[in-house]
Write a structure and sequence with these properties.
Helix content of chain A: 10-25%
Order of helices and strands of chain B: HHEEEEEEEEHH
Structural class of chain A: alpha/beta
Helix content of chain B: 25-40%
Strand content of chain B: 25-35%
Order of helices and strands of chain A: EEEEEHEEHEHEEEHEHEEEHEH
Distance between the termini of chain A: 40 Å
Structural class of chain B: alpha+beta
Distance between the termini of chain B: 63 Å
Largest sheet of chain B: 4 strands, antiparallel
Strand content of chain A: 25-35%
Largest sheet of chain A: 7 strands, mixed
Number of helices of chain B: 4
Strand order of the largest sheet of chain A: 11-9-8-7-12-13-16
Oligomer: heterodimer
Radius of gyration of chain A: 19 Å
């Protein structure tokens, strides 16, 4: 019997907002620091439960660099009472944090392969830690491509960072938006239109793909990847469900035989492919 | 320097690469090289759709404008794409504007000439249908996804 004390996963730790900044009209990023002790290490793709005292708790993916766990960054879009309260927190404000929880993007195991990230909207936030990992160990991978789709040019998340990635000689970045004004010089269309171009010239057997965004976007992107010949066991997606306890106990995020909080949010696509095609699951 | 004939250039376009030499020669009679500078209007809404453009180089913005607001780019097209389908459907009028975002090189097929050749040769007409329809179907699927406004905020 182990006598090692494990922290209670249901007990939030106190963190303070070190810095908060606006990303988009309805999305904010926060850099958090623990009141006591060190910030917990995390894997790319994992999430924390963020608790705004007196308002409520929600699951938010960690969007910072896993190599710098002391800078705990989350990006949140205001869509309800808790997320709006989170986005109203300012430097010095306190909140509760439980986590990190869930499965992670297995990028570290995919060395030597062509890495393709496909992100839609705020889906870039959960993928960013994996992108950081690949960029930091770029020489271990055959190539790195990011295909990113957003609603409009004003709603491109991490726009400055995307620009910096685009300027690297060892990284391909393809950005597309659903609609744009005449001043836009990039692509207009959905991410699937960029995927064929991203995969052109690559041996599909050597591609590993990581997708995060609206489920319909992921479903169609996975179809494109499959049509191009990317092996089904080399495609991972991140699922989003209503997570409450974060430890597979309450059942709120049940997805077929899995709990998204415990068995996900990152799933190998062939594990959930059948469920993804079911209506209203 | 080797000069490429128009049939050869046509045969390099994804839509026509499966066409045999004879068919390409037939279509070549309706084809001409086109060049636009960045910013040029390729066609405007309401214009007669007298050509279809097979893009070889450059990016095109398909725009819709209203009197109340600035033009919106609803789609961009790129090398290998086909610009314009109104040439196939009466009353043969463009339903949007097309603007060159960059320098454009393309092959155009004259609409009347191509339709006439298809009328004379149902085999050619069927081949055009076989090869252009998948391109159009892909574009319709993409536009459907755009209509869903996937990246808009969800209730929660």
């Amino acid at each position: 019997m182990s006598l090692v004390h494990k922290p209670d996963p249901m007990l939030p730790r106190r963190y303070r907002v070190r810095r908060a900044w606006t990303e988009l009209a309805d999305a904010t990023s926060m850099d958090l620091t623990p009141v006591d002790g060190e910030a917990a290490a995390f894997q790319p793709g994992q999430f924390n439960m963020l608790y705004v005292f007196g308002v409520g708790e929600i699951a938010i993916s960690i969007s910072g660099n896993p190599a710098e766990p002391e800078r705990l960054i989350h990006t949140t879009r205001s869509v309800g009472a808790v997320s709006a309260a989170l986005n109203s927190l300012r430097e010095g404000d306190m909140l509760g944090v439980r986590g990190p929880f869930g499965s992670s993007w297995p990028v570290a195991a995919e060395t030597g392969r062509h890495i393709v990230f496909v992100a839609g909207g705020l889906g870039l936030a959960p993928l960013r830690p994996a992108i950081y990992h690949v960029l930091e160990h770029r020489q271990r991978y055959a190539s790195l491509t990011l295909v990113y789709g957003a609603r409009s040019p004003d709603e491109l998340l991490y726009a400055d960072e995307i620009k910096a990635w685009k300027s690297r000689f060892d990284t391909e970045v393809d950005v597309t938006v659903d609609h744009a004004g005449s001043a836009w010089t990039g692509r207009v269309g959905v991410v699937t239109t960029c995927l064929d171009r991203a995969l052109a010239g690559l041996d599909p057997a050597t591609v590993s793909a990581f997708l995060c965004g609206p489920e319909i976007m992921m479903r169609f992107s996975v179809m494109n990847l499959a049509d191009a010949g990317v092996p089904p066991d080399r495609v991972w997606i991140s699922m989003e469900r209503n997570m409450k306890c974060a430890i597979g106990f309450c059942g709120h995020c049940q997805f077929g035989p899995d709990f998204v909080c415990r068995d996900g949010p990152v799933f190998r696509h062939d594990h959930v492919a059948e469920l993804l095609s079911m209506k209203e699951i | 320097m080797r000069i490429h004939g128009i049939e050869e250039i046509l045969s390099e376009h994804p839509v026509f690469k499966a066409f045999d030499k004879e068919t390409l020669e037939l279509l070549g009679g309706c084809a001409r090289n086109e060049h636009f500078r960045a910013g040029d209007r390729i066609f405007a809404e309401g214009d007669s759709a007298d050509k279809v453009f097979l893009l070889r180089k450059g990016d095109v913005a398909v725009e819709i404008a209203t009197s109340e607001r600035a033009p919106i780019i609803v789609e961009t097209l790129h090398p290998g794409d086909v610009l314009g389908w109104s040439w196939m459907v009466p009353p043969y009028r463009h339903m949007s504007d097309a603007r060159a975002m960059t320098e454009i090189r393309a092959i155009s097929l004259g609409a009347v000439c191509t339709r006439q050749k298809c009328d004379e040769s149902p085999v050619l007409g069927y081949r055009m249908f076989q090869h252009l329809l998948p391109h159009m179907a892909t574009r319709v699927r993409v536009l459907r996804l755009q209509l869903l406004d996937l990246y808009g905020p969800k209730e929660g």
